[in-house]
Amino acid sequence: MNRKLYLNKRIRWLKLSLVALTAMAAAVVLAGCTTTTINEMRQGYTGITKSESIVVLGRRHKSDYETELDFVQCIGGEISGQKANVSVIPEQEFADNLYPWFEPRTAPVHLEGLNNLLQREQIAERITELGIRYIVWVDGSTERTSSAGSIACSIGPGGGGCLGFGTWDDESLYEASIWDFKNLTTVGKIKADAKGTSYMPAVVVPIPLLARVKANACKGLGEQLRSFLTSSEES
User: Fold this and answer.
1) Is residue 218, in this structure, part of any structural domain at all?
2) SS3 per residue for 61-115
3) Any idea what the Cα angle at residue 92 is, between residues 129 and 65, rounded to 5°?
4) What is the residue range of 152's domain?
């Protein structure tokens, strides 16, 4: 290889590496930065006893997206956590006990639909046996909203590696509707909107620096639901 050409390539590689390292340093500072907004609308009194339970269900009746099962499980964990002493029945266990009435395509979309289901004596009895006080319907998803940058990888006589810098933005948007099974009313709605940017700097090896958008949405929504459901005051 021509020595001058080799030196030019090395200089170009070093310049690109410097740019990537600078971007990596900036990414490390910004990594994990997300903004989470929680909005609550209360429509009635809430409160729960030790003999009563909550079930968190995901909306999956729409064709363009489905509320993720892992997010629903995460919400349940947040509600029952922090020594809250609140009983949360797993979604699958609840659906199995009431099969097929709470399958994704047959579950009631509105409170009127639940009221119609309860006209069936066996359904009302099963829900009562489970001690259900509140049904929390979670509707939403996490989506990639934009991306930028690029990473190139190559293999040569001296080895291989990657160089570049990429970013992408994610948004988690969820709404929880709370049905009071005892009074057959909607007692409130809580919305969570989390946004964040993830970074992927690469100098030889790509290093993902991820914004925990969905996790933050789960934590914020779950904590707000726990406070909402265990409160006996109306605001």
Assistant:
1) yes
2) CCCCCCCCHHHHHHHHHHHHCCCCCCEEECHHHHHHHCCCCCCCCCCCCCHHHHH
3) 130
4) 3-230
Do 55 and 225 touch, CB atoms closer than 8 A? no
Q: Which of 62-66, 80-84, 180-184, 211-215 bottoms out in mean pLDDT, i.e. has the lowest?
A: 80-84
Q: Which of 72, 92, 75 is nearest to 84 (CA)?
A: 75
Q: Where are the beta strands (DSSP E) in the chain?
A: 34-42, 53-58, 87-89, 132-156, 159-180, 185-206
pLDDT one-digit tens code per residue, 7-29: 555 555 555 555 555 555 554 54
Whether 148 maps to a domain, the answer reads yes
Residues 6+ apart with CB under 8 A from 121: none
Rounded Cα–Cα distance for residues 80 and 87 (Å): 6
Question: pTM of whole model > 0.70?
Answer: yes
Helix axes 213-230, 69-80, angle to 10 degrees: 40
Whether residue 96 lies inside any domain: the answer is yes
Cα(11)–Cα(22) distance, rounded to whole angstroms? 17
Q: What's at 99, amino acid-wise?
A: Y
Number of domains in the chain: 1
Is residue 78 in a domain? yes
> 203: which strand partners?
163, 205
Q: Which of 215, 136, 213, 142 is nearest to 176 (CA)?
A: 136
- Which residue carries 């049905």 as its tokens? 179
- The closest alpha carbon to 200, from 163, 172, 170, belongs to 163
CA atoms within 13 A on the CB side of 7: 3
